[in-house]
Amino acid sequence: MRLAVFTSKYPARVATFFERDMRALLEAGIEIDVFPIYPLDSSLWGYSNDTPDDDVLSRDRIHHLSHLEGLKMPGPYPARKLGVYLRDVALPAMREGAQKAGRPVPPLLAHAPICVHDKPDEIRAAAQQQLANYVRLPFYIKMFEAAGFPEAASGSWSDAMIEAVVFAGDEARVAERIQGMFAIGATEILVSPLVAGSDRTASVERTLRLVAEVAKGMSA
């Protein structure tokens, strides 16, 4: 298995934690390609006490790419176009980095909160509460801004952001969103149930039932 790891800066001020996680993956036999969205700043190595050397994570596995500048991609992208951002920015960056390293292109793993629910106001309330951390952390805010959501800097989810990020609605609508993500180039999708409404158990079960049905349909 090979993973593409996107990080805001590598190494970063929290490099020790980053390296701990990378070491665990490497020790498990997983190959890693690291794609920083900012150029490497070697001075930041000082924040780490135990840095992987070339024998552990060689420098040819760290691709110094700036997605918008280095690849000369137009940006920011229009709101409601996060899938387009993955297709037009993430995938080209992965292909270019893999080509430079002489390696196969790693898989694109996408993440999507999913909520099969019929009441939009309850979906929005659930997103505001359960996804709050994503609009409090600087690296996620920068990702949203690059994808066309400058309002992310306010620290709260706009309706447009929720519509773009959360796969929500009835079964047909959510299935369409999942299939659309695969269509733009995602290799796998990590889904996280978003719990909406007063009956939390029913909400989770409805969402997971739909995910299972989509998975079965794709493997058939």
CA radius of gyration: 19 Å
Number of distinct beta strands: 5
Strand order in space, largest sheet: 4-3-5
**Terminal-residue CA separation:** 23 Å
Mean pLDDT figure: 75
Main sheet: strands, sense, barrel: 3 strands, parallel
Number of DSSP helical runs: 7
Task: Flag low-confidence runs.
Answer: 10-15, 38-54, 56-80
Shape: globular
How do the SSEs run, as a string of H and E?
A: EHEHEHHHEHEH
Structural class, judged by helices and strands? Answer: alpha/beta
Helical content (DSSP H or I, runs of 4+): 40-55%
* Share of β-strand residues: 5-15%
Short description:
This protein is an alpha/beta fold and 220 residues long.
Map the helices and strands.
Blueprint: E1 2-7, H1 15-27, E2 31-36, H2 82-101, E3 109-116, H3 120-130, H4 138-146, H5 159-165, E4 167-169, H6 171-183, E5 188-193, H7 200-219
Parallel strand pairs: 1-2, 3-4, 3-5
Helix pairs in contact: 6-7
